[in-house]
């Protein structure tokens, strides 16, 4: 199963190390990513025109891949804009304020609500729904916006996505690759997801409170200070919304919650997953936006629907603009490389990132402890493309190889690779992957990645040690 590593593999790895070094130093990586794309294109095509064209085409590729996330964020933001302007969001938030009375309660409350919601919706749409409702409450009781983003990120893109017990997209991919029943991988992942989740969230909370006490906390706010503040901002050309009675606000708030509850029911009944589930949430948000706008603006409703959508799209593309070059580079680690530059990798290659993972697995001796460490590292490396899902099939196949050599632990090793890949690539460490939480909370995705780094690394270490005893 040996893979011949080429110059392209080593150049890609070198740029990953450089990018990670810059991220730790809190420097911008856009230019480095563009340079990396250009260098890989030059090696692949051996022509200046091919490498220059590859930079642009990689941007197009990344934009297409990210479009679903950009759209759902933009539409949810547009919907939340009209909810905030009409005051309906305050009516929705009111019942929660009695539970979130301190920064600690806000951190854990937002996290648990995010986790439960993400099990059903997947994290990207869930973070928009939860953020717009709970972020103002959290800030009001003293939880920083970055602290709220950490909670939503770790509980949603971390715990919920790495387990994925409702939609089951992740365990199905890894189980199929390992030749195991989905149920066995899900059962094996439960203790690992619990350990990883507890260690990371407790560590992140402790570090936040420690840094706040010693004055070293940085909230990482970007130009858009917070979702609530941004969406509540008034522009001169805005038409005032007609007053809505408290009773009507209450009914509309209930109707909105019922519509999203109906989405959850439809996901179960129709077995909607991933993009289909996101599309259902997005379509519902457009419907809510349209109805609330017509009720609030009446004879100006037709024009205001367009106005709110434009505002949402401006928000989405403004936030995602700096992310596209970074995403473009990391996508080259997977299928994008062949799509953009042709079949220039070795015949047996499964993509640059996966080849590096296979090379790592083949370079170490096979036993329980080394197997657990290698699956964690391999999963983390395959997560560097930022999707969290592209490499988990590789993690499953390598886990099967290790389990065959060791004689046991196939399900545990498979689950460990899945947890590592999704925690790194699913949206807690790679800056462009965790953009939804950063965008909704109005904080820098790079600051959020830095804040998550130590808790996630500590969590992966502890989880790997636990897996050694379970193999």
TrEMBL record:
Keywords: Membrane, Transmembrane, Transmembrane helix. The chain crosses the membrane at residues 6-24, 31-60, 66-84, 104-121, 127-143, 150-167, 187-208, 251-271, 277-296, 308-332, 369-389, 429-446, 453-470. It comes from the Bacteria. The keyword Nucleotidyltransferase does not apply. This is Transporter.
């Amino acid at each position: 199963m040996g893979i011949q590593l080429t110059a392209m593999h080593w150049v890609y790895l070198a740029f990953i190390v450089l990018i990670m070094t810059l991220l730790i130093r809190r420097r911008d990586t856009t230019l480095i990513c563009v340079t990396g794309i250009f260098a890989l294109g030059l090696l692949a095509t051996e022509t200046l025109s091919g490498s220059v064209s590859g930079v642009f085409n990689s941007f197009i590729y990344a934009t297409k891949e990210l479009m679903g996330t950009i759209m759902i964020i933009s539409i949810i933001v547009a919907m939340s804009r009209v909810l905030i302007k009409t005051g309906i969001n305050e009516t929705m938030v009111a019942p929660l304020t009695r539970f979130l009375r301190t920064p600690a309660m806000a951190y854990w409350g937002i996290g648990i609500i995010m986790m439960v919601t993400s099990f059903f919706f997947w994290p990207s749409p869930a973070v928009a729904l939860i953020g717009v409702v709970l972020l103002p409450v959290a800030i009001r009781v003293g939880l920083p916006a970055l602290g709220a983003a950490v909670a939503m990120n770790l509980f949603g893109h971390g715990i919920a996505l790495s387990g994925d017990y409702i939609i089951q997209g992740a365990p199905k991919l890894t189980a199929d690759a390992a030749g195991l029943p989905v149920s066995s991988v899900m059962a094996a992942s439960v203790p690992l997801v619990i350990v990883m989740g507890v260690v990371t969230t407790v560590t992140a909370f402790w570090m936040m409170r420690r840094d706040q006490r010693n004055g070293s906390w940085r909230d990482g706010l970007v130009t858009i200070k917070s979702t609530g503040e941004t969406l509540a901002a008034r522009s001169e050309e805005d038409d005032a919304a007609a007053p809505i009675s408290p009773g009507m606000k209450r009914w509309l708030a209930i109707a909105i919650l019922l519509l999203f509850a109906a989405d959850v029911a439809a996901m179960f009944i129709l077995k909607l997953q991933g993009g289909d589930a996101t599309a259902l949430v997005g379509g519902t948000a457009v419907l809510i936006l349209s109805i609330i706008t017509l009720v609030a603006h009446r004879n100006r409703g037709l024009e205001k629907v367009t106005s709110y959508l434009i505002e949402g799209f401006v928000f989405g593309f403004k936030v995602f603009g700096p992310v596209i070059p970074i995403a473009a580079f990391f996508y080259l680690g997977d299928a994008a490389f062949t799509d953009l530059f042709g079949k220039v990798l070795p015949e047996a290659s499964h993509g640059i990132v996966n080849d590096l993972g296979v090379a790592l697995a083949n370079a170490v001796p096979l036993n329980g402890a080394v197997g657990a460490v290698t699956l964690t590292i391999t999963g983390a490396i395959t997560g560097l493309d930022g999707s969290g899902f592209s490499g988990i099939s590789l993690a499953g196949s390598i886990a099967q190889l290790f389990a065959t050599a060791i004689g046991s632990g196939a399900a545990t090793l498979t689950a460990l690779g899945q947890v590592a890949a999704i925690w790194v690539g699913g949206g807690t460490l790679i800056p462009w992957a965790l953009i939804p939480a950063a965008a909704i909370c109005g904080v820098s995705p790079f600051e959020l990645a830095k804040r998550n780094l130590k808790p996630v690394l500590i969590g992966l270490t502890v989880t790997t040690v636990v897996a050694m005893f379970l193999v």
